Structure formats: C-alpha cells, structure tokens
Amino acid sequence: MNYFLRFGAYLFHPLLMPLLGVSIYYLISPRFLQPEIIQAKIAAIIILTVFIPLLIFFLLKNLRLVSSIHLKEVSERKLPLFIQCALLLLIIKFVYDPYDSGELYYFFIGILFTTITSLLLVFLNFKVSLHQMAIAGVTLFILGLSVHFKINLLLWLGLLLLGNGWVASSRLHTKSHTVIELVIGFFVGAIPQLVLYNYWL
C-alpha cells in the first residue's frame, strides 16, 4: 500500500498534467485535425511543460536551490513557479490561440492563473498542494469538454476523480501536505478552469 500511494504522486505529477489534458482533448475531440499538427502541438507541450522544467530542476538542484522535484519547502517554490509562468506564457502566445484552439488556449490560461495564485501563496508562506491543484484543473477542463462537445466522458471523469483521491491520499500518507493545503490546492486548480468556461463553452 505504501508503494501504491507513493506512486500516485509520480503518476499524477504536476508537470505531466498539462500533457494529460491536451492528450485527452485530442483523443475525444470530434473536430478533424491533421495528425501532423497534433504531433507538433504535443511535441511543443512536452518540451515546454516537461523537458525544459526538468532541465531547469536539475540545474537548480545542482545549484542547491531545490532539494527534490516535489519542492517540499515553501522557499524552494518561488523560482520554479516563476519560470513555469514564463513557459505557460510561451504556450499561450505561440502554441495555441483563442480562434483555432479556443478550448486548449483557455485551458492554459487557467493553468497560468492557477500557477500565479500558487506563487502568490508562496509569498504568503503557504504551501499549497501543486499535485492537487494540477489534477483538479485537468478534471474541470475535461468536465467542460463533456458539456462543450455534448459527449459522454463519464469514464474519463471517473478516472480523474479517482486520481484526485489517489493524489490526496498519497500526499497525506507521505505527510507532504495537510488537509487544508490539499483542499485549497483543489480549489486553486479548479476555480480558474470553472471561471473560464464563460469564454469557450
């Protein structure tokens, strides 16, 4: 059980959640998109949300500015979250636009607001759960897609809700977060996606 709970923190790591949301979108979207375009977009997301953050993490770790990829200390979060905001702005500016890919454009706008909020909380010395806010954001995005495209996504939503519970249990089990940090993390991730429904639903 210990390994199972710990595995949830890696499976649903915040760096992987934007890629998960984008991948599910392309899997369920009824719109026709050329495979080459999908591959190019996914490659860009992998580079900007996974590879570059990982490279930056190893650089920061070598400089002893962070101790682990989970950013356990509040003080370790400032620079990584600031860099993440910059990378999200690149995605919003160059990868997706509100006219051709409105759903994904606002998905990343929501992620940006979530990241900014978590950065502001760092300055208030509050360690919100990045894991919980990330999977909560994806869950609300997929819920919006279900309404938007008028398709049944109960299976995906069920799996994501299970993932929310798995992540929360994992973070509590490892004593990485308190219940209040997880609850606030959920709302920090969910509310921006919910508010942005007004722009693309």
UniProtKB/TrEMBL annotation:
The question of whether Transmembrane is a record keyword is answered with yes
Keyword Transmembrane tagged: yes
Q: Which domain of life is it from?
A: Bacteria
Q: Which UniProt keywords apply?
A: Membrane, Transmembrane, Transmembrane helix
Which residues are listed as membrane-spanning?
7-28, 40-60, 81-99, 105-126, 133-159, 179-200
- The name on file for this protein is Transmembrane protein
Which organism does this record belong to? Patiriisocius hiemis
